[in-house]
Amino acid sequence: MKDVIKGNPEFTRKINQKILLNLILKQEAISRAELAKISKLSRPTVSSIIEDLKEQNFILEVGFGTSAGGRRPMMIKINKENIYLIGVDLNPDSITIALTNMGLRILDSVTASITSTSTKEEIIQHMFEGIDALLERSNFKEQLVMGIGISSPGQIDSKSGYVYSSNTIKNWNAVNLKELFEEKYKINTYVEHNVKAMALRELWFGNNQNLKNFIVIKAGIGIGAGIVTNGKIYLGSKGNSGEFGHTFISLDGPQCKCGNKGCLEAHADLVAIKRDILQLASEEQDTVWKSSGEITTSQLHAALANKDPIAVKVVEKAGAYMGIGIVNLIHLFNPEAIYFGGEMNKLWPFISKPLLEVVEQRTIPNLDSVVIRPLENAPSLDSSYNNIGVQSAAAIVFDKEFQIPIRRV
Question: What's the burial of 342, exposed, middle or buried (CB within 10 Å: 0-12/13-18/19+)?
Fold first, then answer.
């Protein structure tokens, strides 16, 4: 979609275009007359914008609707099948790249593994190779791709697409992803922190799209929060809001990856849980864990499934710390809901009880009605299978293209 705004008339038309796209998106099919009535735009304005959107293949005419006394109206809908998105989801141990339609239905995907020794050049090359493979296997022209969305951990300037640094990926720093990808593919590219991308997916495609104030937590190797207020992602002054894992839980707690002590992340993410299991096992001379130099996530899941007392104790303690952090979020933002996602979502049966107990005990009255539950796959998505990470990356493009712009003066 064209994204250049010059002067008041063009800016106004851009806003009107996105208002109509949002209205069409929420309907199975709708007529021009209904769009004019709901949007309160003039019929000539609606007709002109709809013709532009048809030329850009954003909408389709799908047949005549029921007459209300005159001619039967031509119905229109979003053209999900002929416009595509590319999502790139970067994690500490892997990169997943997918081609989706505008309903986030995953059409094709590839995955590459990375390690703690991977250089940023190697990571970028994996991304390029994955996109190249998807484009080569598809049977359409690159011009039909609306955009590339990249979700990444780290300190990110989402406006420029620049990644400053990351605590979870060793060599991931000082790279302008937007510039690199737009130069190579000539496709609009948008970069966002991975947990904010998850919040965008929930905002546009989640089970409760009527919610306008909620928080998505991503917990795994690191902990972050995507904060939605009044239907918009809260970015902060430099776009780096949501560093939930680096809020302080104790004055002199364990050393965190960021260099400070006592961060929530140092108490309650996967790295902290595995560290504390080994430490407690050593103190109690536990024979099951004693010989473990390093705990894999699959070993942790197996231990919890077998109700290993040390694993259960440590994970429940992490859940209590997470509860303290969530109480702080509730008091600061007064959200309607908090969704718990990321790799630690699988630990929810063990984390949830201590977490919810702390929230119930510590949240002040009138703020304690917030819904707290695991982030779920959204049945509303047009998808044969759900991959929250890569769909979230694609949702970055969707949000940038469909959000109603706010003029900055």
Answer: buried
Low-confidence ranges of the chain (pLDDT < 70): 1-7, 141-143, 287, 290-292, 378-386, 404-409
Reported as half-sphere exposure (CB side, CA atoms, 13 A), residue 318 has a value of 32
CA distance 206 to 216: 11
**Mean pLDDT, the chain, whole residue set:** 87
d(CA 362, CA 248) in angstroms, rounded, equals: 16
Can you give the pLDDT at residue 379?
57
**pLDDT tens digits for 186-243?**
999 999 999 999 999 998 888 777 788 999 999 998 999 999 999 889 988 878 889 9
Terminal CA-to-CA distance of the chain, rounded, Å?
23
Distance separating alpha carbons of residues 149 and 197, to the nearest angstrom: 9
CA gap 145, 211 in Å, rounded: 29
Note the pTM of the prediction, 2 decimals.
0.84
Least Cα distance to 108 among 392, 371, 390 occurs for: 390
- The edge-to-edge listing of strands for the beta sheet with 145-152 is 106-113, 94-101, 84-90, 145-152, 189-193
Report the run of H or E that residue 171 belongs to, with start and end.
Answer: none
- List all residues 6 or more positions away from 85 whose beta carbon is below 8 Å from its beta carbon: 99, 100, 101, 102, 104, 145, 146, 147, 148, 149, 394, 397, 398
Q: What is the DSSP string of 351-409?
A: HHHHHHHHHHHHSPTTSTT-EEEE----TTS--SS--HHHHHHHHHHHHHHHSPP----
Please give the structure tokens belonging to residue 201.
């997916």
Domains identified in the chain and CATH numbers: 7-78 (1.10.10.10), 84-202+379-402 (3.30.420.40), 209-374 (3.30.420.40)
Cα–Cα distance for residue pair 277/301, rounded to 1 Å: 13
